[in-house]
Amino acid sequence: MKISMIVLLGCFTQLAMAQEIPMFIGTYTHAGSQGIYLYMFDQQSGDATMYSSTASEHPSFLARSAKGDMLYAVNETGDSTAALSAFTFDGDILSFVDAMPTGGSYPCHVAVSKRHPLAVVSNYGGGSLSVYRLGENGGLVEKIQHIQQEGTGPDSARQEASHVHSAFFTPDEKHVYVQNLGTDMVTVYRVDKTNNNYRLIEEGHLSTPAGGGPRHLVFDEHGKNSYVLLEMTAKIAHYEKNGENWILVDTISINEDGFEGDNGAAEIKRSADGKFIYATNRGDANTITLFAVDKSGKLERKKVYPTGGEGPRNFNLSPDGRFLLVANQKTNNITVFERNMETGELKDTGKQIEVSTPVCIVF
């Protein structure tokens, strides 16, 4: 009987440990933040426990390696200290490995390939891309490319120059799509490997609606539909692939009908089952919007939710899909929503994580 009890307690302990997973939060460090925060997130209760912090200057966007043993952060500064930093993570401790300059100001996004030893950084201020080769251990080996984009857009205040905002690998990892808010352009690069040397080679581009300012995008699992989030107009531009060409199917607002005020669309993500898409809007809205995706890929706006704070930036879904967490930059809090797996609908749990200027959440 005692042995059975010991085994049972051991099972409960393992289950409790499995429920808790690491969650990294990137911040701006001008208002007292230390840098990167590691929390343990309970996927059963939605509770989050502060575990540790790691010093890093303005780590505004984070990405984990496919194995999860590396964490990468852009250091979003406007001078020569702008960099990509790499950290090891052993499941317990986050340790700094190295950093390399981006060669462009205000880097705001990093994408890490699951298939190739590559990381791509978007330099918003410099309007450029920095491409890095990663070592077998995940460390930064060298910067192999610096791609400068040029151009302007119709909004003379926001689109006076090139502003590269993000880069995403396609589901098959053969291409990288780069969003430029300043030029209303999505540029398509092919990932080329010749004699074990990698380069991004430009293959084409998509023109997005004028004055929209493309910020981020998501693909469906087959790469047949893409959804570009337009920051300045708070709309999603839905494209469908026809042969080698992308056709603009529709644009849909992430705001409620009749909304009047300033926009600042920030993040777009797709649920793992592909049935739902979510997008945040800052400005005067401070909302996150749920869209249903039908079999053809068309979006239907279902519901708009207040985010429980101001300046909702990045958000993320827990790996099991049961929770969605939104980083409210201006009010120093992360709101924890419970998510209905069948309908995609969100319910505010009332649980808040207090963090100084949170802007990125990564599991």
Task: Please count the beta strands (DSSP E, at least 2 residues each).
Answer: 28
Order of secondary-structure elements: HEEEEEEEEEEEEEEEEEEEEEEEEEEEE
**Helical proportion, percent range:** under 10%
Query: Low-confidence runs (pLDDT<50, min 5 residues)?
Result: 5-17
**Helix count from the secondary structure assignment:** 1
User: What shape does the CA trace take?
Assistant: globular
Rg calculated over all Cα atoms = 20 Å
Structural class comes to mainly beta
Mean of residue pLDDT values:
95
**N- to C-terminal separation?**
39 Å
Physical arrangement of strands within the biggest beta sheet: 3-2-1-28
Fraction in beta strands? over 45%
* Most strands sheet: 4 strands, antiparallel
Please write out the topology.
Blueprint (H helix, E strand, L loop, with lengths): L1 H18 E8 L7 E8 L5 E8 L3 E6 L5 E6 L7 E7 L4 E8 L5 E6 L5 E6 L4 E7 L5 E9 L15 E6 L5 E6 L4 E10 L2 E11 L6 E6 L5 E6 L4 E8 L2 E9 L11 E6 L5 E6 L5 E7 L5 E8 L5 E6 L5 E6 L4 E7 L6 E9 L3 E5 L1
Antiparallel strand pairs: 1-2, 1-28, 2-3, 4-5, 5-6, 6-7, 8-9, 9-10, 10-11, 12-13, 13-14, 14-15, 16-17, 17-18, 18-19, 20-21, 21-22, 22-23, 24-25, 25-26, 26-27
Protein name: Lactonase family protein
InterPro entries: Cycloisomerase_2, Haem_d1_sf, Lactonase_7-beta_prop, WD40/YVTN_repeat-like_dom_sf
Pfam family, one: Lactonase
